[in-house]
Design goal:
Blueprint: H1 2-6, H2 12-15, H3 18-37, H4 43-62, H5 73-91, H6 97-118, H7 126-148, H8 153-183, H9 196-214, H10 216-219, E1 242-247, E2 256-266, E3 272-282, E4 289-295, H11 322-327, E5 331-337, H12 351-365, E6 373-382, H13 384-399, E7 404-411, H14 417-422, H15 430-444, H16 450-453, H17 456-465, H18 473-482, H19 499-507, E8 518-523, H20 531-543, E9 548-553, H21 567-581, E10 589-593
Parallel strand pairs: 4-5, 4-6, 6-7, 7-8, 8-9, 9-10
Antiparallel strand pairs: 1-2, 2-3, 3-5
Helix pairs in contact: 3-4, 3-8, 4-5, 4-8, 5-6, 6-7, 6-8, 7-8, 7-9, 8-9, 12-13, 15-17
Length: 594
């Protein structure tokens, strides 16, 4: 240890001019900010940024805040370790994601642990003890996150290391400013305890704990797909047939009876597949219930993301008013779609199989005698499900004539997948939706590869994110935004609206004609699907001769438009009552703002 302290590098802090020390701190601060706000940079570039940051971290430790005589020995050791580790990364930027993440995690954890130990050493003032303990604790937490996060490892390492680099730069700048102020005072007036560094250290602990808590939902184990979702060997050879059903209570109000169902439908190529869903009917009444055929919003791409596997059932797919619908005397039949619950891949944003899954859920649920469903049906859908609802409305008369579809309500629909994916870099949490879209189209359509459209550094992130569920949009989108995953104009190396991907996206634009009255509602502040893009789609429908009741709700975001107190919900229920009652819908196209 004494040998290390005698090294020229170990005494660098005593020789550097003050302006050089300040420049190093500013460089660390700027580099930390760059790493935090652009963690999806290409892997080789990110490795260079992290390697440079590690070297700066070591230099900050070696040119630290204390006088040479009082300098903690462990800080020299960690400084040398950071510099050597950074040089390794810079010399070999082709390190694997796991090796790079492991190296940074180990150094963060080790430096934090040594800081905790040093906080209890002799001759330390109370402010120094608290600061060292707090910085040590945050280092241990950040190191543990980097080492043990099961998914998106390098992204998380980049963010936590960037945050650590920012704090190191801020602390060093604070120290330099404080020293200048102290130098201007008589020696007897200089404070013995200095709490500025302690406050920053405590803030670092708060940041570390917040990061660990907020990201906990993404580290928790996924829901388990059970044997209910397995297709039997003697599968019916036609769509819309009930395979099995069992009582279901997750998210079902006390005034209703619920079941989850497994049934047959048709896949992308028209082959017979199985899908699952949920059925809810009022407990009391005469039966032959009118049916809301619900097409849920985005919940994910992986099999375990089915609403029927979530604790809150339909709520996870944006059906927030199920008790209200039950009180109206209506039943709700909600498809999970193919590949959610059942064997994938899930045709995310692919219209025909999603629409057929919804209509076939309605047909199969009629075989459930206990549910006692009628034939009167109004199709509802939100977001992904809004696009699916538009497809269902276009296909219903020919595909499922036994269902009397009396209306279609498309709520903030993903009617034009090409426009949605093209603008996804500007969407809050946009790379989450992109991860599902690329997973879907690359598995279902031949010739679609990540390498053709997505930057190399973002591919790993998108693949890992597609394995997670969007069962609580507020949590996952806020985490994604915090990690810098949204607003990244360089997510794509090639615009997704071009080439084969663009062709397949445009193929899945919802049809311009419906077989039942149409209500299309949208939030005026929607950042996921812009009002402009939705208006352009409605204009095309009107130009094709389709009657559209288009309603815009100013100030409402993508999900908020279907939550209380959005005025849409009461209007939607009234509009649905009229459809079930056979009241003629207004003719022509109209746009109304609320």
């Amino acid at each position: 240890m004494r040998f290390l302290q005698r090294l020229a590098l170990g005494r660098l802090h005593a020789r550097l001019p003050e302006w050089v020390r300040i420049a190093i701190a500013v460089a660390a601060l700027i580099l930390g900010v760059v790493i935090v706000i652009r963690p999806t940079t290409a892997l080789d570039v990110l490795a260079w940024l992290i390697g440079g940051g590690m070297v700066l971290t070591g230099v900050l430790d070696l040119t630290g805040r204390a006088d040479e005589e009082a300098r903690p020995r462990w800080r020299t050791l960690t400084g040398v370790a950071w510099v050597l580790g950074g040089l390794v990364v810079l010399i070999a930027p082709g390190l694997t994601v796991r090796l790079l993440a492991g190296l940074v995690g180990i150094l963060l954890f080790a430096a934090g642990a040594l800081g905790l130990i040093a906080a209890f050493g002799r001759g330390r003032t109370i402010d120094a003890r608290i600061a060292d303990a707090a910085f040590g604790a945050s280092g241990v937490i950040f190191g543990a996150l980097a080492l043990f996060w099961p998914d998106i490892t390098l992204l998380v390492v980049a963010v936590v290391f960037g945050a650590r680099l920012i704090m190191s730069g801020v602390v060093d700048l604070w120290t330099r400013v404080r020293r200048r102020n102290d130098a201007a005072k008589p020696e007897g007036e200089r404070p013995r305890r200095r709490w500025g560094r302690t406050v920053i250290a405590l803030a670092s602990v708060a940041l570390a704990v917040t990061t660990a808590v907020v990201t906990a939902p993404l580290r928790e184990g996924s829901t388990v797909v059970d044997e209910f979702y397995a297709a039997p060997r003697d599968l019916p050879d036609e769509p819309g047939r009930l395979v099995r059903a069992e009582p279901f209570t997750a998210g079902i109000p006390g005034t209703a009876d619920g079941w989850r169902i497994l049934y047959t439908t048709l896949g992308v190529e028209g082959e017979v597949r199985v899908a699952s869903g949920i059925v809810a009917v009022p407990k009391n009444g005469d039966g032959q219930w009118p049916v809301i055929n619900w097409h849920h919003g985005t919940t994910g791409f992986a099999e375990h993301c089915a609403p029927s596997l979530q604790e809150r059932g339909m709520w996870s797919g944006a059906m927030y008013i199920l008790p209200t619908l039950i009180n109206e005397g209506w039943a709700v039949v909600a498809t999970d779609y193919i590949g959610l619950g059942t064997e994938g891949p899930h045709p995310y944003l692919i219209g025909p199989p999603s629409a057929r899954a919804g209509l076939d859920a309605g047909r199969a649920a009629r075989e459930l005698a206990e549910a006692d469903l009628g034939v009167r049906t109004v199709v509802w859908g939100h977001s992904q499900g809004g696009g699916s609802a538009l497809w269902a409305g276009a296909l219903a008369r020919d595909y499922a004539p036994e269902l009397w579809v009396q209306g279609v309500a498309a709520l903030a629909p993903a009617a034009d997948p090409s426009a949605l994916v093209e603008n996804i870099a500007d969407v809050t949490g946009g790379s989450i939706f992109a991860s599902y879209a690329f997973a879907s189209f690359s598995e279902i359509y031949p010739g679609i590869t990540y390498a053709d459209y997505v930057r190399p550094g973002a591919e790993t992130t998108l693949r890992k994110m597609s394995e997670r569920c969007l069962t609580d949009p507020s949590i996952i989108i806020s985490v994604a935004a915090a990690l810098g995953m949204s607003g990244d104009a360089r997510l794509f190396s090639t615009p997704p609206s071009t080439g084969d991907l663009g062709r397949f996206l445009r193929r899945n634009t919802a049809p311009l004609h419906q077989t039942a009255p149409l209500l299309l509602a949208h939030g005026g502040a929607d950042s996921v699907i812009s009002v402009t893009a939705q208006t352009e789609y409605v204009d095309r429908m009107c130009g094709a001769g389709q009657d559209v009741d288009f309603r815009i709700y100013d100030g409402y975001e993508h999900a908020a438009v279907v939550e209380r107190p959005s005025p849409l919900l009461d209007q939607l229920i009234e509009w649905t009552r009229d459809r079930f009652a056979g009241v003629p819908a207004p003719e022509g196209c109209s746009t109304t703002r609320y």
